[in-house]
User: What shape does this take?
Amino acid sequence: MIASEAAPFAKTGGLGDVLGALPAAMSRAGWDATVVLPRYRGNTAGREIDRFPLRVGGYSTEIGIFEAPLADGARALFVDDPRMFDREFIYGEGTGDYPDSPLRFAVLARAALEHAVRGNIPVTVVHAHDWQGGLVPVYLKTLYSGHPVLSRAGVVFTIHNLAYQGWVDPDWLPRLDLPWHLYSIDQLEFYGRISLLKGGIVNAGMVTTVSPQYAREIQTPSGGVGFDGILRSRGDRLVGILNGIDAVEWDPMADRFLPAPYSADDVSGKRVAKKALLERYGLASDDAAMERPLIGMVTRMVDQKGLNLIEQLAGELPWLDAGFAVLGTGESRYQDMWRDLASQHPWKIGVRIGFDEGLAHLIEAGSDLFLMPSLFEPCGLNQMYSLRYGTVPLVRRVGGLADTVTNFDPSRSDSTGFVFDDFTPWALIGTLRWALDTYRDKDAWHRLQVNGMRQDLSWDRSAREYVKIYESAVSRGTP
Assistant: This one.
């Protein structure tokens, strides 16, 4: 696997979570799994196992490869090139990428493939991720075509978020050792530029994304971000596989951040966590507050996460019969909105701007309801954490949220949460009021909690699906 980040070595979002867990899950499934990452500033893990010169276009460097063990027999390899990766930020300063980002991730791709070639390492599958890995399938079809070590490898490419497409100017092609004939509509060309994400999609044997619903959405004009036609053309090789969660790190029976353990068989520890959460935020924690539903949010405060809907409801939220515990960071207008609400209603609305891993766990455990009104959500992890912790999710029916949360129906035995469709504040507030009314029915609420806690959300479930994709990529080859 070749990717730009993996927890715990480098993480900015869901990609890091996936690559932090998937290699070990694939190892448990019987595969010899290696993930290759840049050796970013501050990473001192591993020992050097290889060193060699590398040239990409006009850039010459010396590459070091460092190896570190991962759980369950998997391993990580780090590509060491200080000029490319020893920088203050992983991707770039501010909101933009570094200007030489195409070269940085070309070095990652080429170094990974060259190390395999140098070691005569038998490779069954090469699995690249997001636009930063988009050059991997391209190089396998060009520079390494026919190579005895790599030519028979199945090639899998995973889209974690289609919105990030790796656009660069066409003059980058020779600088990346790529021929000009790739500047064509059936290859990397995209509206007069080139897209590294497109390169990965059209040159891989199999393409996956992070949930079945997201795989369907990105093939439509409304969800395809301009790529819907490209993805429909690969529809017979495009599969959505739902991400998993780290069932060891996120386990209410053994969570080091919780004041008391609990399980689906005995959820009494949730009440202990709720009191601790209220006290952590300085909210009222008397008997009345403990009986009032507590709504949790751990989120990036941006439009994609539905914060514009919440902004339109800011005047109504304090008057609901509920408390709020919010953690996150993002656009200043949304941070200020939550700060203002908390200062005006300090007994029932608590806000922390920033991120705190322990507090995130406590919110998942101590909340009664978890709010995710996303505009789009390729997979989502917080709703799965919520399910595992018996915190009932309220979500919009998009992407992985639609695949993981079953809307409440008193006549069904498998309901796990509350789901709304229209991206409007009225749909959100109506569903929220419905959920708060249902909270008063303790038996119904307990069923929702237990149903969620008994779902198999582990990476082992996901790994079984990746095994099928890997085998298909090997048998079908590249297009």
